[in-house]
């Protein structure tokens, strides 16, 4: 009985699963491609745990980013564009529209 209560309590704190890749909109699918090219070397998108950087699973479903900053499009854009700590700046490495596509994809996680 105690194990069931613990499992239910843990389930209440979990985030919803990411949108299945097959169900992504064209913009979200383009963002997935950007993620695979630019982000997947350091971040997981569909599993927990750190790779070289933190997992981005549920990044916009949590009240704050791993840094403690609010999980907003503006903060994520600034982090991707300018870098932070060990994360390199991606400014100039992304094509026009890539950031919007990436944000659309990250919202599905």
Automatic annotation (TrEMBL):
Q: Which SUPFAM superfamilies does the entry mention?
A: Cytochrome c (SSF46626)
Top-rank taxon, per record: Bacteria
List keywords of the entry alphabetically: Electron transport, Heme, Iron, Metal-binding, Transport
> Where does the record place the Cytochrome c domain?
26-109
Question: What GO MF annotations does this protein's record show?
Answer: electron transfer activity; heme binding; metal ion binding
Q: What is this protein called?
A: Cytochrome C oxidase, cbb3-type, subunit III
């Amino acid at each position: 009985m105690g194990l069931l209560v613990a499992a239910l309590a843990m389930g209440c704190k979990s985030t919803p699963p990411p949108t299945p890749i097959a169900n992504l909109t064209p913009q979200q699918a383009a963002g997935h491609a950007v993620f695979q090219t630019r982000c997947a070397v350091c971040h997981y998108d569909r599993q927990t745990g750190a790779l070289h950087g933190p997992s981005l699973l549920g990044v916009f479903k949590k009240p704050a980013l791993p840094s403690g900053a609010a999980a907003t499009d503006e903060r994520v854009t600034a982090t991707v564009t300018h870098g932070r700590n060990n994360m390199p700046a991606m400014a100039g490495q992304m094509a026009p529209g890539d950031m919007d596509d990436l944000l659309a994809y990250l919202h599905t996680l």
